[in-house]
Amino acid sequence: MASTQVLLLQLLLVSLASASHHYGGTVAFTYKGRNPDGTLQVDLRTTSVFRGCSRYYHLSCYNGNCGNVSKIQRGVVDSTEQGCETESVETRKVPNDRPFQMRVPENCPRTYRMMAFDPDGDRVRCRYGNFRSAECSTCHQPPGFYIDQDSCTLYYRSASYDRRKVFGFEMVVEDFPHENVILNYSDGSTIPQATNMTNIRTTYLNTTTAPLSKLPLQFSVFVDPPIPSCQEGNYLPKFVAPTPRNGAHIQAEVNKEVDIRVKAQVARRARSRIFHSEMRCVLVDVGKEQIKTNVICKESTMTVEVEKSSFARLHEEHLRLIDPSNTVCSLQTHSNSTHVIGVIPLNACGTEIEEDEENLIFKNEITTFDITQNTITRHHLLEVQFYCQYPKRGNVTLGFTAHRKNVTVWDKGFGTFTYNFEFYPNDQYQTRIDPILYPLEYDLGIPMYIQIFAETLVNNTELFVESCRATPYDNPNSRPSYTIIENGCIVDSTIQTYPTVNERQFRFSMEAFKFIGLHDQVKNGAKVQFIISV
Fold this sequence. Notes:
Helix content is 1%, strand content 44%. By secondary structure, the chain is mostly beta strands. A hairpin with a 4-residue loop joins strand 6 (68-79) and strand 7.
């Protein structure tokens, strides 16, 4: 029999799973090593979903010496009308490695693969709670559901719809060794651990078949009314590429952002109903930083810097961007003795452009290649993917009485776009009105010729004026206000639009007006964005 020393932890459940305000939660622990004073450090991480954000799990000692809490942090992960997800991280100093227990307060078959795994590779099983007031409150097994304990998979077959009814699950996740082991504790005692799965299924009280750890898993299931079709992609959303598969491992590095893209499609949509896709769980493996990089985003270029010391036996002459055919795309131009440096135009070097509702995303990558053969490489494998993210929307303002400088909008330091708001003397738009002449004065009803212009040049995009309003003050949210353009639609009846030289311009005129009352000045403000044109 193999011999090992572990910290045995049992986190058991109590009476929250059946409550109508509680929708689910998990608890996990991580052994962090021995403290200088000889105690052990354990991190307990709890996630829970309640109806409101004021509730969260409270941990209390159930059996054994649970130690003392040295630090605790709580926060809200997400809040919607359906519920509030909170997370707590509690650091506990445990006096020894002996075991201790704690308590934490209809027509479509579905499969739920539960979030249960062990980073050490131990065998993980899931079961319903059996012991009242310790593992469960009601210890009730909801009808219409079946659990495969070995794969931690819950199968739904059928249940009656009741909008007031919630199916509460109080479950326990356990892990077992792959081979017979002996647990050695610091006080000199030992406990044998067997891998006889037959015994494990029949009893949980025998010390030779006890799990290495017990963790609670609580969640709720709502059963909706029947739908016309249970086929995924029809009414039920269907995951499509590039959505990761269930159980996929995603590699990540410390202090670097991880992009997990999820996409689903559905053929039919009901306005008054919410349909749920299958549940998927992905694991993010966070490792130390391997390649040290830095990305700088400017209005027309991306600059990527890679430290040469972070990879061995590799020179910039063996590195390339997606498309190196243009001379500006050579990584040898700007590189130096310490860094491989690339200055990449947003419109060249194979840079790919993507968009979501809020941003334009420009992506490229550095890969290895052989000089004599551009399709394979026998050098040390390197792939550095990088991107710059720019917000599509920005606000620009300009008053009749003072010329404003260019307004630069930015988002989290990812990159900037610059927009201009200018007046012109006529509809030819040849020469802007000199800022020295500001403040401008117009008689009521006289046309004012205005141009909104984006300095950034990006292929396959165009400037879109989403909204424009006027107020008597600099604050765009002040009252009174007058809407000129709303959701891209012209509201003011005097507006005339004019042809532009390129798609980065928007030209229009409108008749001068004033606010009723003692407001002689008018401040115009516009919300603009880039959209990809086809």
